[in-house]
Protein backbone atom coordinates (compact mmCIF):
# COMPACT_ATOMS: atom_id res chain seq x y z
CA UNK A 1 0.00 0.00 0.00
CA UNK A 2 2.78 2.35 0.78
CA UNK A 3 4.37 1.67 -2.63
CA UNK A 4 1.08 2.30 -4.43
CA UNK A 5 0.49 5.47 -2.46
CA UNK A 6 4.00 6.61 -3.34
CA UNK A 7 3.47 5.92 -7.04
CA UNK A 8 0.14 7.69 -6.97
CA UNK A 9 1.74 10.71 -5.33
CA UNK A 10 4.56 10.75 -7.91
CA UNK A 11 2.07 10.47 -10.78
CA UNK A 12 0.07 13.36 -9.44
CA UNK A 13 3.21 15.50 -9.47
CA UNK A 14 4.52 14.31 -12.88
CA UNK A 15 1.28 14.63 -14.86
CA UNK A 16 0.92 18.41 -14.43
CA UNK A 17 4.57 18.83 -15.35
CA UNK A 18 4.07 16.75 -18.52
CA UNK A 19 0.92 18.66 -19.43
CA UNK A 20 2.64 21.99 -18.93
CA UNK A 21 5.59 20.76 -20.97
CA UNK A 22 3.33 19.66 -23.82
CA UNK A 23 1.53 23.00 -23.75
CA UNK A 24 4.82 24.88 -23.89
CA UNK A 25 6.00 22.66 -26.73
CA UNK A 26 2.75 23.30 -28.63
CA UNK A 27 2.98 27.05 -28.09
CA UNK A 28 6.59 27.02 -29.27
CA UNK A 29 5.65 25.07 -32.38
CA UNK A 30 2.73 27.40 -33.09
CA UNK A 31 4.96 30.45 -32.68
CA UNK A 32 7.64 28.95 -34.91
CA UNK A 33 5.33 27.93 -37.74
CA UNK A 34 3.13 31.02 -37.50
CA UNK A 35 6.09 33.39 -37.78
CA UNK A 36 7.42 31.37 -40.70
CA UNK A 37 10.95 30.74 -41.78
CA UNK A 38 12.50 34.19 -41.96
CA UNK A 39 15.07 32.89 -44.39
CA UNK A 40 12.43 31.58 -46.78
CA UNK A 41 9.75 33.27 -48.92
CA UNK A 42 7.48 36.21 -48.22
CA UNK A 43 3.91 35.39 -49.21
CA UNK A 44 1.42 38.20 -49.81
CA UNK A 45 -2.20 38.05 -50.89
CA UNK A 46 -3.91 40.64 -53.03
CA UNK A 47 -6.04 41.32 -56.07
CA UNK A 48 -5.41 42.09 -59.72
CA UNK A 49 -5.66 45.78 -60.55
CA UNK A 50 -5.38 47.76 -63.76
CA UNK A 51 -6.09 51.19 -65.16
CA UNK A 52 -9.39 52.21 -66.75
CA UNK A 53 -10.41 55.10 -68.98
CA UNK A 54 -13.84 56.53 -69.67
CA UNK A 55 -14.19 58.03 -73.14
CA UNK A 56 -16.69 60.82 -73.94
CA UNK A 57 -17.07 62.81 -77.15
CA UNK A 58 -15.65 66.34 -77.16
CA UNK A 59 -18.81 67.84 -78.75
CA UNK A 60 -22.54 67.60 -78.14
CA UNK A 61 -24.45 65.75 -80.87
CA UNK A 62 -26.69 62.75 -81.44
CA UNK A 63 -24.96 59.38 -81.43
CA UNK A 64 -25.13 57.76 -84.85
CA UNK A 65 -23.48 54.41 -84.03
CA UNK A 66 -21.69 52.55 -81.24
CA UNK A 67 -19.38 49.99 -82.85
CA UNK A 68 -18.24 47.89 -79.87
CA UNK A 69 -19.81 45.68 -77.21
CA UNK A 70 -18.78 44.83 -73.66
CA UNK A 71 -15.79 42.49 -73.69
CA UNK A 72 -14.59 43.59 -77.14
CA UNK A 73 -10.81 43.81 -77.44
CA UNK A 74 -9.83 47.09 -79.04
CA UNK A 75 -6.59 48.50 -80.44
CA UNK A 76 -5.20 52.01 -80.19
CA UNK A 77 -6.67 54.12 -83.00
CA UNK A 78 -9.78 51.95 -83.46
CA UNK A 79 -13.09 53.75 -84.01
CA UNK A 80 -15.47 53.00 -81.12
CA UNK A 81 -18.49 55.21 -81.92
CA UNK A 82 -19.66 57.98 -84.27
CA UNK A 83 -21.81 61.09 -83.96
CA UNK A 84 -24.27 62.41 -86.55
CA UNK A 85 -22.40 64.58 -89.12
CA UNK A 86 -25.44 65.93 -90.98
CA UNK A 87 -25.06 69.49 -89.74
CA UNK A 88 -21.29 69.77 -89.72
CA UNK A 89 -20.45 68.51 -93.22
CA UNK A 90 -22.18 71.46 -95.03
CA UNK A 91 -20.31 73.91 -92.80
CA UNK A 92 -17.02 72.27 -93.76
CA UNK A 93 -17.92 72.51 -97.46
CA UNK A 94 -18.84 76.19 -97.05
CA UNK A 95 -15.54 76.90 -95.32
CA UNK A 96 -13.62 75.08 -98.09
CA UNK A 97 -15.34 77.27 -100.73
CA UNK A 98 -14.48 80.40 -98.74
CA UNK A 99 -10.84 79.38 -98.57
CA UNK A 100 -10.75 78.70 -102.30
CA UNK A 101 -12.25 82.11 -103.13
CA UNK A 102 -9.89 83.98 -100.82
CA UNK A 103 -6.93 82.05 -102.18
CA UNK A 104 -7.79 83.08 -105.74
CA UNK A 105 -8.22 86.72 -104.68
CA UNK A 106 -4.76 86.70 -103.11
CA UNK A 107 -3.25 85.04 -106.18
CA UNK A 108 -4.81 87.71 -108.39
CA UNK A 109 -3.25 90.48 -106.31
CA UNK A 110 0.17 88.84 -106.33
CA UNK A 111 0.13 88.23 -110.09
CA UNK A 112 -0.81 91.85 -110.88
CA UNK A 113 -2.36 93.01 -114.18
CA UNK A 114 -2.38 90.76 -117.23
CA UNK A 115 -0.71 91.96 -120.45
CA UNK A 116 -4.12 92.36 -122.04
CA UNK A 117 -5.24 94.66 -119.20
CA UNK A 118 -2.11 96.78 -119.58
CA UNK A 119 -2.71 97.03 -123.34
CA UNK A 120 -6.29 98.02 -122.73
CA UNK A 121 -5.19 100.75 -120.30
CA UNK A 122 -2.67 102.09 -122.85
CA UNK A 123 -5.38 102.19 -125.51
CA UNK A 124 -7.63 104.12 -123.16
CA UNK A 125 -4.81 106.62 -122.56
CA UNK A 126 -4.28 107.06 -126.30
CA UNK A 127 -7.99 107.59 -126.88
CA UNK A 128 -8.24 110.12 -124.07
CA UNK A 129 -5.19 112.00 -125.33
CA UNK A 130 -6.61 112.08 -128.86
CA UNK A 131 -9.91 113.38 -127.57
CA UNK A 132 -8.12 116.04 -125.52
CA UNK A 133 -6.08 117.09 -128.55
CA UNK A 134 -9.23 117.33 -130.66
CA UNK A 135 -10.97 119.44 -128.02
CA UNK A 136 -7.93 121.70 -127.73
CA UNK A 137 -7.86 122.06 -131.55
CA UNK A 138 -11.53 122.98 -131.64
CA UNK A 139 -10.99 125.62 -128.99
CA UNK A 140 -7.97 127.08 -130.82
CA UNK A 141 -9.92 127.20 -134.10
CA UNK A 142 -12.89 128.99 -132.57
CA UNK A 143 -10.61 131.41 -130.76
CA UNK A 144 -8.83 132.24 -134.05
CA UNK A 145 -12.11 132.89 -135.80
CA UNK A 146 -13.26 135.06 -132.93
CA UNK A 147 -10.08 137.13 -133.04
CA UNK A 148 -10.26 137.58 -136.82
CA UNK A 149 -13.92 138.65 -136.73
CA UNK A 150 -13.43 140.70 -133.58
CA UNK A 151 -15.99 138.58 -131.81
CA UNK A 152 -18.66 138.83 -134.40
CA UNK A 153 -18.40 135.26 -135.89
CA UNK A 154 -18.21 133.36 -132.58
CA UNK A 155 -20.20 134.17 -129.52
CA UNK A 156 -18.43 134.37 -126.13
CA UNK A 157 -20.60 131.49 -124.88
CA UNK A 158 -19.42 129.14 -127.63
CA UNK A 159 -15.83 130.11 -127.04
CA UNK A 160 -16.17 129.48 -123.31
CA UNK A 161 -17.83 126.11 -123.91
CA UNK A 162 -15.02 125.05 -126.25
CA UNK A 163 -12.43 126.09 -123.66
CA UNK A 164 -14.21 124.11 -120.94
CA UNK A 165 -14.47 121.02 -123.15
CA UNK A 166 -10.74 121.21 -123.89
CA UNK A 167 -9.84 121.40 -120.20
CA UNK A 168 -12.18 118.49 -119.34
CA UNK A 169 -10.68 116.34 -122.08
CA UNK A 170 -7.18 117.05 -120.84
CA UNK A 171 -8.18 116.17 -117.26
CA UNK A 172 -9.79 112.95 -118.44
CA UNK A 173 -6.65 112.05 -120.36
CA UNK A 174 -4.54 112.65 -117.23
CA UNK A 175 -6.88 110.48 -115.17
CA UNK A 176 -6.61 107.62 -117.65
CA UNK A 177 -2.83 107.98 -117.73
CA UNK A 178 -2.64 107.69 -113.93
CA UNK A 179 -4.84 104.59 -114.09
CA UNK A 180 -2.34 103.08 -116.53
CA UNK A 181 0.50 103.78 -114.07
CA UNK A 182 -1.44 102.06 -111.25
CA UNK A 183 -2.14 99.08 -113.49
CA UNK A 184 1.53 98.72 -114.36
CA UNK A 185 2.66 99.24 -110.72
CA UNK A 186 0.39 96.46 -109.44
CA UNK A 187 -1.46 96.23 -106.09
CA UNK A 188 -0.18 97.82 -102.89
CA UNK A 189 1.76 95.71 -100.38
CA UNK A 190 -0.88 96.48 -97.77
CA UNK A 191 -3.64 95.09 -99.98
CA UNK A 192 -1.71 91.83 -100.45
CA UNK A 193 -1.08 91.53 -96.70
CA UNK A 194 -4.77 92.14 -95.98
CA UNK A 195 -5.79 89.45 -98.46
CA UNK A 196 -3.23 87.07 -96.94
CA UNK A 197 -4.61 87.69 -93.44
CA UNK A 198 -8.15 87.03 -94.66
CA UNK A 199 -6.97 83.78 -96.25
CA UNK A 200 -5.25 82.72 -93.00
CA UNK A 201 -8.46 83.38 -91.05
CA UNK A 202 -10.51 81.34 -93.52
CA UNK A 203 -8.01 78.46 -93.34
CA UNK A 204 -8.09 78.52 -89.53
CA UNK A 205 -11.89 78.32 -89.58
CA UNK A 206 -11.68 75.38 -91.97
CA UNK A 207 -9.09 73.61 -89.79
CA UNK A 208 -11.32 74.02 -86.73
CA UNK A 209 -14.33 72.60 -88.56
CA UNK A 210 -12.28 69.67 -89.86
CA UNK A 211 -11.08 69.00 -86.30
CA UNK A 212 -14.69 69.00 -85.12
CA UNK A 213 -15.56 66.66 -87.99
CA UNK A 214 -12.76 64.29 -86.97
CA UNK A 215 -13.95 64.44 -83.36
CA UNK A 216 -17.28 62.98 -84.46
CA UNK A 217 -15.46 59.63 -84.31
CA UNK A 218 -14.55 58.31 -80.86
CA UNK A 219 -11.05 56.81 -81.14
CA UNK A 220 -9.54 54.38 -78.64
CA UNK A 221 -6.38 55.91 -77.17
CA UNK A 222 -4.89 52.56 -76.17
CA UNK A 223 -5.17 48.80 -76.41
CA UNK A 224 -7.65 47.31 -73.99
CA UNK A 225 -11.01 45.65 -73.42
CA UNK A 226 -14.39 47.39 -73.43
CA UNK A 227 -15.68 47.09 -69.90
CA UNK A 228 -18.93 49.08 -70.16
CA UNK A 229 -21.05 50.41 -73.03
CA UNK A 230 -22.69 53.40 -71.39
CA UNK A 231 -24.74 55.07 -74.18
CA UNK A 232 -26.67 53.97 -77.26
CA UNK A 233 -27.40 55.39 -80.76
CA UNK A 234 -29.95 58.18 -80.71
CA UNK A 235 -28.90 59.53 -77.34
CA UNK A 236 -27.43 63.02 -77.04
CA UNK A 237 -23.73 62.79 -76.30
CA UNK A 238 -22.01 65.51 -74.29
CA UNK A 239 -18.40 65.98 -73.13
CA UNK A 240 -19.56 65.13 -69.59
CA UNK A 241 -21.09 61.73 -70.44
CA UNK A 242 -18.74 58.83 -71.32
CA UNK A 243 -19.79 56.54 -74.16
CA UNK A 244 -17.64 53.52 -73.24
CA UNK A 245 -15.14 52.60 -70.54
CA UNK A 246 -12.00 50.64 -71.42
CA UNK A 247 -9.88 48.49 -69.13
CA UNK A 248 -6.22 48.84 -70.09
CA UNK A 249 -4.76 45.34 -70.16
CA UNK A 250 -1.13 46.43 -70.02
CA UNK A 251 0.24 47.06 -67.48
CA UNK A 252 -1.40 44.83 -64.85
CA UNK A 253 -0.35 44.67 -61.23
CA UNK A 254 -1.22 42.92 -57.97
CA UNK A 255 -2.18 45.21 -55.11
CA UNK A 256 -0.95 43.41 -51.99
CA UNK A 257 0.20 44.31 -48.47
CA UNK A 258 3.38 43.48 -46.56
CA UNK A 259 4.15 43.76 -42.85
CA UNK A 260 6.78 46.12 -41.51
CA UNK A 261 8.92 43.15 -40.46
CA UNK A 262 9.13 41.92 -44.08
CA UNK A 263 9.35 45.37 -45.62
CA UNK A 264 13.14 45.44 -45.32
CA UNK A 265 13.39 42.46 -47.68
CA UNK A 266 11.54 44.27 -50.52
CA UNK A 267 12.78 47.04 -52.77
CA UNK A 268 11.69 48.62 -56.03
CA UNK A 269 12.76 46.11 -58.68
CA UNK A 270 12.56 43.00 -56.47
CA UNK A 271 11.45 39.99 -58.58
CA UNK A 272 8.30 38.11 -57.54
CA UNK A 273 6.21 35.11 -58.52
CA UNK A 274 2.44 35.52 -58.95
CA UNK A 275 -0.14 32.73 -58.98
CA UNK A 276 -3.92 32.63 -59.14
CA UNK A 277 -6.29 29.88 -57.99
CA UNK A 278 -7.27 28.93 -61.53
CA UNK A 279 -3.64 28.32 -62.55
CA UNK A 280 -1.71 27.65 -59.36
CA UNK A 281 0.85 25.53 -61.21
CA UNK A 282 1.65 28.26 -63.77
CA UNK A 283 3.21 31.19 -61.93
CA UNK A 284 3.68 34.52 -63.65
CA UNK A 285 6.76 36.66 -63.36
CA UNK A 286 6.40 40.00 -61.66
CA UNK A 287 8.42 42.92 -60.37
CA UNK A 288 7.84 45.22 -57.40
CA UNK A 289 7.40 48.74 -58.80
CA UNK A 290 5.61 50.53 -55.97
CA UNK A 291 5.93 50.49 -52.19
CA UNK A 292 3.72 52.78 -50.16
CA UNK A 293 5.50 55.14 -47.82
CA UNK A 294 2.47 55.22 -45.51
CA UNK A 295 1.28 52.39 -43.27
CA UNK A 296 -2.28 51.13 -43.70
CA UNK A 297 -4.90 50.54 -41.00
CA UNK A 298 -3.41 52.81 -38.35
CA UNK A 299 -6.31 54.57 -36.60
CA UNK A 300 -4.14 55.85 -33.74
CA UNK A 301 -0.51 56.51 -32.88
CA UNK A 302 1.30 53.21 -32.41
CA UNK A 303 3.67 53.03 -29.45
CA UNK A 304 4.43 49.39 -28.68
CA UNK A 305 6.84 47.31 -30.73
CA UNK A 306 4.25 44.58 -31.23
CA UNK A 307 1.76 46.96 -32.77
CA UNK A 308 4.45 48.63 -34.86
CA UNK A 309 5.37 45.31 -36.47
CA UNK A 310 1.71 44.57 -37.29
CA UNK A 311 1.41 47.57 -39.58
CA UNK A 312 1.12 46.80 -43.30
CA UNK A 313 2.24 48.71 -46.41
CA UNK A 314 0.77 48.60 -49.88
CA UNK A 315 2.94 46.91 -52.51
CA UNK A 316 2.23 46.81 -56.24
CA UNK A 317 3.75 43.96 -58.19
CA UNK A 318 3.58 44.50 -61.95
CA UNK A 319 2.99 41.24 -63.82
CA UNK A 320 3.99 39.96 -67.27
CA UNK A 321 0.66 38.51 -68.43
CA UNK A 322 1.27 37.79 -72.10
CA UNK A 323 -1.59 35.25 -72.26
CA UNK A 324 -4.09 37.70 -70.70
CA UNK A 325 -5.06 35.34 -67.89
CA UNK A 326 -5.55 37.93 -65.17
CA UNK A 327 -8.85 39.75 -64.71
CA UNK A 328 -9.70 42.85 -62.74
CA UNK A 329 -10.26 42.02 -59.06
CA UNK A 330 -9.05 38.40 -59.34
CA UNK A 331 -7.42 37.13 -56.10
CA UNK A 332 -3.71 36.45 -56.47
CA UNK A 333 -0.80 35.22 -54.37
CA UNK A 334 2.57 36.95 -54.52
CA UNK A 335 5.71 35.12 -53.42
CA UNK A 336 9.05 36.87 -52.90
CA UNK A 337 12.23 35.00 -52.03
CA UNK A 338 14.05 36.68 -49.13
CA UNK A 339 17.32 35.22 -50.36
CA UNK A 340 16.94 36.79 -53.81
CA UNK A 341 19.31 39.70 -54.49
CA UNK A 342 17.66 43.11 -54.21
CA UNK A 343 17.59 45.01 -57.50
CA UNK A 344 17.66 48.77 -57.06
CA UNK A 345 16.97 50.66 -60.31
CA UNK A 346 19.61 53.01 -61.66
CA UNK A 347 17.51 56.04 -60.83
CA UNK A 348 17.43 55.00 -57.14
CA UNK A 349 13.68 55.30 -56.94
CA UNK A 350 12.33 55.73 -53.44
CA UNK A 351 9.37 53.82 -51.95
CA UNK A 352 6.08 55.42 -52.81
CA UNK A 353 7.04 56.11 -56.44
CA UNK A 354 6.46 54.15 -59.64
CA UNK A 355 9.50 52.79 -61.39
CA UNK A 356 10.18 54.53 -64.68
Structure description:
- The protein is α+β, with helices and mostly antiparallel strands and 356 residues long.
- Among the domains are: 1-30; 52-84 and 216-244, RNA polymerase II/Efflux pump adaptor protein, barrel-sandwich hybrid domain (OB fold (Dihydrolipoamide Acetyltransferase, E2P)); 91-211, no CATH class.
- Helices cover 44% and strands 25% of the residues.
- The protein has 7 helices and 12 strands.
- It has helices at residues 2-35, 88-111, 115-148, 156-185, 189-214, 260-263, 305-309, and strands at residues 41-55, 61-66, 73-74, 79-83, 217-219, 224-229, 236-237, 244-259, 271-275, 284-296, 312-319, 331-337.
- The strands form 2 sheets. A 6-stranded antiparallel β-barrel has the order 1-8-11-10-9-12. A 4-stranded antiparallel sheet has the order 5-4-2-7, with no helix packed on it.
- A hairpin with an 8-residue loop joins strand 9 (271-275) and strand 10 (284-296).
- Helix 2 (88-111) runs antiparallel to helix 5 (189-214) and helix 3 packs antiparallel against helix 4 (156-185).
- The radius of gyration is 48 Å and the shape is rod-shaped.
- The relative contact order is 0.17.
Rg from Cα: 48 Å
What is the percent of helical residues? 40-55%
Q: What is the helix/strand order?
A: HEEEEHHHHEEEEHEEHEE
Major pleated sheet: 6 strands, antiparallel, barrel
Cα shape: rod-shaped
Structural class: alpha+beta
| Tally of helical segments | 7
Described by its quaternary structure, the protein is single chain
Strand order of the largest sheet: 1-8-11-10-9-12
Into which percentage range does the β-strand content fall?
Answer: 15-25%
Residue windows where pLDDT falls under 50 for at least 5 positions: 30-39, 298-304, 344-356
Residue-averaged pLDDT, rounded? 79
Q: What is the β-strand count?
A: 12
From the N-terminal CA to the C-terminal CA, the straight-line distance is: 85 Å
Amino acid sequence: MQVQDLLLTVNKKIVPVVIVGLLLLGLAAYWFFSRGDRSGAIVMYGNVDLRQVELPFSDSERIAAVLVEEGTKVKAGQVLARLDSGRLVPRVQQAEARVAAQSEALRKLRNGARPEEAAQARAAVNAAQAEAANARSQFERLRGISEESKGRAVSPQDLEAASTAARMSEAQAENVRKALELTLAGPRREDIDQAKAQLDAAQADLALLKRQLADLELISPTDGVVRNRLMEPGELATPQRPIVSIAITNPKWIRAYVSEADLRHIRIGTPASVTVDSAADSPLRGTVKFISSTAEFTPKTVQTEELRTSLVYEVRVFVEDNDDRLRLGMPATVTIDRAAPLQQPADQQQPGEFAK
